[in-house]
Design brief:
By secondary structure, this protein is an alpha+beta fold. It is built from 10 helices and 13 strands. The protein has 3 domains: 182 residues; 72 residues, Nuclear Transport Factor 2, Chain: A (Roll), CATH 3.10.450; 66 residues, Nuclear Transport Factor 2, Chain: A. Helix content is 43%, strand content 23%. The longest helix has 62 residues.
Length: 437
């Protein structure tokens, strides 16, 4: 054996060197291919952002001359769609170190102003300011692309292995300059501030101690013997205790409990959810039972999102037979074993805080439109399979009463929300099955 190794030693070393070299070369080309793919996707996202800004500017220009409510509605919807598309394009870019606060603020103003414009509450001066602001931002982005399109690379690949990709310094400087050059839209903030808004929600109740927060976490999570302890305290808008327990090596349960009232704001379990997924209907019923056991009111499922064997199920409460979309509750269930591993209830508690002391819950909302009339507002080719009344937030931060129609068109299912007063379509959402009706 030793003689054989001695005779073939150099051959073995040479073969191993080839293997190592081949692996290194393969990794080098894989990394290069990844870099080229990411560079291309970032350039495409930036070009799409510029295209959406250009289209947004054109739509705002047309909005200045629209005279009828119908045309205002079309323009407003187009503006909102373009803003959402522009925001989505920005979300695809590695902008962690770039200050784009004014750009993001301006996009938010466009979106909010579109709803005010549709309702006839936006002055011609503010609409002109919106148009000029969009044109200025669009022009800056067009100039940026013209100058930087041939620059390479866009991404600082020195930070590749840290998983913290950012634009190169020259691009960061250029984008920051665009952001800082944007002036405030004079008078628009004040005008938007005068629009009706919901009162800020507030969580109230008797203040609890850290020991009480631990007991709340044990009871809510269903792990009464787990070694929970307070790991953090926060103040701010909602003072809270963060309580955590290491149940096993791969499972930590963390619960956020409000100091006022001792309400569980959110809960998350870190363990992996591996295994064959259960049926969606079973997961929904598990989540519904979890809420019922903790004293929540009747709820209706509106959405199920599946990611890494975790089903995030969104419910809205049913009050007086009306679905309240501004008060969502989210429950996360392991699709592998049906164990509840997450909860989110902040928006629900804040909405409950807004209604306390008011007459919102005591007054029964009466629909002005009959169901039959609402059904006539949808396509004649669609089959209406379900009807519920729903309070739906609109773009002006108002809750509007709608007829929520579950329809089937061919093999597809949709939820169509018809405004009870105006008869217009507030929202159309495609769903996977009629179980959401």
């Amino acid at each position: 054996m030793k003689r054989w190794l001695a005779r073939h030693f150099f051959n073995i070393v040479f073969a191993l060197a080839l293997v190592v070299l081949g692996f290194a070369v393969g990794q080098y080309y894989l990394q290069k291919a990844y870099q080229q793919q990411m560079e291309a996707s970032y350039r495409r996202a930036m070009r799409e952002f510029a295209v959406h800004l250009s289209a947004l500017t054109q739509e705002l220009g047309r909005a200045r001359v629209a005279a009828t409510p119908e045309q205002r509605g079309v323009s407003a919807q187009s503006v909102r769609s373009r803003v959402e598309a522009a925001q989505a394009s920005l979300g695809q870019l590695p902008l962690g170190e770039v200050d784009l606060g004014r750009v993001e603020q301006m996009l938010g103003q466009f979106y909010q102003a579109a709803s005010a414009y549709e309702a006839g509450r936006l002055s011609a001066e503010s609409l002109q300011a919106l148009y000029e602001g969009a044109a200025r931002l669009s022009g800056e982005m067009q100039a940026f692309l013209a100058e930087k399109e041939t620059a390479s690379p866009w991404v600082s690949w020195g930070r590749y292995f840290s998983a913290s990709l950012v634009f190169s310094h020259s691009l960061v400087a250029a984008l920051s300059q665009i952001n800082s050059s944007l002036a405030d839209l004079e008078g628009l903030d004040a005008e938007l501030a005068r629009l009706p808004k919901k009162a800020a929600g507030k969580i109230t109740g008797e203040e609890i101690t850290a020991a009480q927060a631990v007991e709340v976490a044990r009871e809510f999570s269903g792990r009464k013997n787990a070694p929970f302890k307070v790991i953090n305290e926060t103040e701010g808008d909602i003072p809270a205790f963060t309580v955590a327990a290491e149940v096993s090596d791969d499972e930590v349960v963390t619960v956020e409990v409000s100091k006022q009232g001792g309400l569980v704001l959110w809960m998350i379990n870190s363990r992996a959810a591996a295994g064959q997924p259960l049926e969606t209907k079973q997961l929904v019923e598990t989540a519904r039972a979890f809420l019922a056991a903790r004293g929540f009111p009747e709820v209706h499922v509106t959405d199920v999102q599946m990611l890494y064997n975790r089903a995030t199920i969104t419910f809205v409460p049913v009050v007086g037979g009306i679905l309240r979309y501004a008060e969502p509750l989210k429950v996360q269930v392991s699709a592998a074993d049906g164990d509840v591993i997450g909860f989110q209830g902040v928006l629900y508690y804040l909405a409950r805080g807004r209604s306390q002391g008011g007459a919102e819950d005591e007054v029964e909302l009466q629909a002005a439109m009959k169901r039959e009339e609402a059904e006539k507002r949808v396509s004649s080719q669609a089959v209406v399979l379900g009807h519920r009344l729903a309070l739906l937030p609109n773009g002006l931060d108002e809750d509007v009463l709608t007829h929520r129609l579950g329809i089937q068109l061919g093999d597809d299912y949709y939820l169509v929300y018809i405004n009870d007063k105006s008869g217009k379509e507030e929202r159309i959402v495609q769903v996977s099955s009629p179980e959401f009706f």
